[in-house]
């Protein structure tokens, strides 16, 4: 997995223009069964991919924390939301709550998440490849293929299936 992660940003850069054109076409005229196709590709990839061998998303990027995330996680810590925010989060340039640092504070050396049961919505949904109306998040997907080997593989399979 280390070698895959080392090569991933370069591979994603090499495919960037091709992927950008593909997503532009997809946005203009998405196939009727796109959501179904994406669900199948997503499920097939995650049958093969074990996130615990990777955790690159947790090591290199941080999720956005919604107010609901803050409430849920702080409650699990038996902590007031404001104290949780002060301890772990900061406000970014887009006025969103994000982690103060990466890798994620809640990621263990074994790649397990210490707040997995109450993790942020963004973490639960990452890499967003099974999302409905997938064509609407192509900019996010372009970023995610450089972070997540599974997202990269899903997009490569998608391009073979959808012409």
From TrEMBL:
Protein's name in the database: Zinc-or iron-chelating domain-containing protein
Species the sequence originates in: Maribacter dokdonensis
InterPro entries: Puta_zinc/iron-chelating_dom
Domain of life the protein comes from: Bacteria
């Amino acid at each position: 997995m280390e070698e895959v992660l080392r090569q991933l940003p370069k591979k994603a850069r090499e495919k960037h223009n091709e992927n950008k054109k593909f997503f532009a076409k997809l946005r203009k005229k998405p196939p009727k069964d796109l959501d179904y196709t994406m669900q199948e590709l997503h499920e097939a990839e995650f049958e093969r991919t074990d996130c615990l061998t990777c955790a690159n998303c947790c090591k290199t990027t941080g999720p956005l924390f919604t107010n609901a995330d803050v409430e849920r996680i702080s409650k699990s810590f038996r902590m007031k939301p404001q104290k949780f925010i002060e301890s772990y989060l900061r406000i970014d340039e887009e006025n969103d709550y994000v982690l103060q640092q990466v890798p994620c504070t809640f990621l263990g050396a074994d790649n397990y998440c210490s707040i997995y049961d109450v993790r942020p919505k963004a973490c639960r949904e990452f890499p967003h490849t099974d999302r409905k109306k997938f064509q609407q998040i192509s900019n996010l997907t372009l970023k995610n293929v450089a972070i997540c080997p599974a997202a990269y593989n899903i997009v490569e399979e998608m391009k073979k299936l959808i012409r």
